[in-house]
Amino acid sequence: MSDAPLIAGVELGGTKCIAVVARGTEILRERRLPTTDPATTLAGLSEALAEWQAEMPFTALGIGTFGPARVSPEAADCGQILPTPKPGWTGARVLDHFADRFAVPMAFDTDVGAAALAEGRWGRARGCSTHAYVTVGTGIGIGIVANGQVLHGALHPEAGHLRVRRRRDDAFAGVCPFHGDCLEGLASGPAIAARIGGDATHIADDHPVWSDVGAELGELMATLILTVSPECIVIGGGVGGGRPALLDRIRDATAGALAGYVPGADRAALETLIGPPGLEARAGPMGALALALSTLD
Amino acid sequence: MSDAPLIAGVELGGTKCIAVVARGTEILRERRLPTTDPATTLAGLSEALAEWQAEMPFTALGIGTFGPARVSPEAADCGQILPTPKPGWTGARVLDHFADRFAVPMAFDTDVGAAALAEGRWGRARGCSTHAYVTVGTGIGIGIVANGQVLHGALHPEAGHLRVRRRRDDAFAGVCPFHGDCLEGLASGPAIAARIGGDATHIADDHPVWSDVGAELGELMATLILTVSPECIVIGGGVGGGRPALLDRIRDATAGALAGYVPGADRAALETLIGPPGLEARAGPMGALALALSTLD
């Protein structure tokens, strides 16, 4: 790795941000900040990068951000945060902030698009032509890589807000402020907390709430398989990551929804098609680094 | 167009097949055959091509087929029909049949993937980086183009079989032999015929069945927008094509399902985002020609 290029990455999360500089996959410096207002947050991140740059001149910068964000390089407002309930961030010119300070190639994408790219480069989805990364935590986010490129389209995937089919016996109204019982309103951390009146991260694997959540996430998997036919779906995040029992429920529900229709996606195949991240909790900063590397390919 | 290359195309449909030879988009010869057993059908098509080749030596061949089919060029069984209820066609080596007879570059894809490519090259989706083509007829099929390439993944889209959310007051059991009330089981031509006990192509625009069908197709649109974020969705096929009133119902339902969440996809934007084919009924053979041209790019 000693001849790998020096690269830098920024992950802009809903509650915290991380800046890193790395040689290949080896992270040499890291700074963590709380996400507050855009001016303070972005200044803190670029200060860290500027300090490191003198000592370790990085050759590219990748930026992964919470959404919605304008990620199409052709758009006039590329690099900006789109209308968001997060105070002060609507219209924040994230990419411009860094482009004004560092004269290196930059790539800007969603945090989940970046994580999908990292899982394809170094993680569970290595060698896949088309794969997806799903984070299930405070929200539900999806990144899709097709033919080696993060899929953007007009905006970027927002599949956390899919209206999945409801189970007949599940009457929970959901917590999404836009849709009520869309997937995020039914199966995100806050949704699970609202269902049981407690913290979603400390629920035993045999709690009945996982039947509904597993079924609803299975509907998302079936939707992804029927729509973009990924060779691999990685499930991470505070709720989705590190829960083998939930993964099994999700696989069962996926197979049930597909009902044997899709060649190569029966229950046995889903054992490898759907799985945990290869990069574990490092997907965020590694995603930003994968974006940086994509500018040098 | 006189300096455009001579190209050939084959469309393999569920009930009929078409072979064409063209200069650019100008079709010079065309032959139509019923789809019977693979040996007879493929021989009829290659016979037509062989006749034309002597007189008009075409430089590439595109083949668009009903699915499921193996379309990944890397796969050992690329060019074959996958397990299908259509008698005799499971395992049919379609691409090999033509590759054994014609020494020109060939591209093989689904009929809907090919139609999506043609709508991107010459039709409604010109200039889009990511778009979708949806046919609603005997079945419901979807082709997606992302960054100029037909999206394959592990198989190809099969989004006709999505389990869309049901309307509470719609108790129709559906006609899909695999899933009952998946989208195709609810909103395809045979499904509509089963709902009303008559032919779907002769139903007045104000018939109540269109409320359910429009709502269900709107769920598909919302799913596509939330998953692959197309800049344009083209709706064609025997049921979906040429019905402005149905398109309006679909747009209304899509806007309802998205509930204002997706920037750039409000009801006014859907007026242009979702629309009829630019190529009308020619999408099939034009799709095959677009595939042929893709080998020359």
> What is Rg of chain A?
19 Å
Question: Within the largest sheet of chain A, what's the order of strands?
Answer: 3-2-1-4-5
The chain-level structural class of chain A is alpha/beta
Oligomer: homodimer
Mean pLDDT figure of chain A: 95
For the report, how would you describe the main beta sheet of chain A?
A: 5 strands, mixed
Distance between the termini of chain A: 16 Å
Order of helices and strands of chain A: EEEHEHEHEEEHHHEHHEH
Describe this structure as you would to a colleague.
- 2 copies of one chain form a homodimer.
- The mean pLDDT of chain A is 95.
- Chain A contains 9 helices and 10 strands.
- In chain A, 34% of the residues lie in helices and 19% in strands.
- With 297 residues, chain A is an alpha/beta fold.
- A 5-stranded mixed beta sheet of chain A has the order 3-2-1-4-5, sandwiched between helices. A 5-stranded mixed beta sheet of chain A has the order 8-7-6-9-10.
- In chain A, helix 2 links the parallel strand 4 (61-65) and strand 5.
- At the A-B interface, strand 7 and helix 6 of A face strand 7 and helix 6 of B.
